[in-house]
């Protein structure tokens, strides 16, 4: 598992880890049914506290991206509730778009960013 943590970032370590796993799922590096490393193993490999990994895994579980099982550990298990996912995404986008509007970012620039990011995921998916 390739995880890059920036220890100098203002972003919390568990958020960085969570985001890396989400991007891994989006780019098909991690697929439905894949097991993630154990909390202890991943913490040792990255050089962070086990509680930090556990917190990231719990966030991913709450977001419907993994399931936690005592025997199997953390497994990619994507929640197929698309309507709920769209509602959650809309709420997150409201804030992001409001911040963009405050910085005079145009609708066209937003669309370009979205297209660029999706193209990036598609390229990584084909690798």
Automatic annotation (TrEMBL):
It comes from the Bacteria. Residues 11-79 form the HTH gntR-type domain. The keyword DNA-binding applies. GO terms for molecular function: DNA binding; DNA-binding transcription factor activity. This is DNA-binding transcriptional regulator YhcF, GntR family. Keywords: DNA-binding, Transcription, Transcription regulation. It comes from Acetitomaculum ruminis DSM 5522. PROSITE patterns: HTH_GNTR. InterPro entries: Tscrpt_reg_HTH_GntR (IPR000524), WH-like_DNA-bd_sf (IPR036388), WH_DNA-bd_sf (IPR036390). Signal peptide: none annotated.
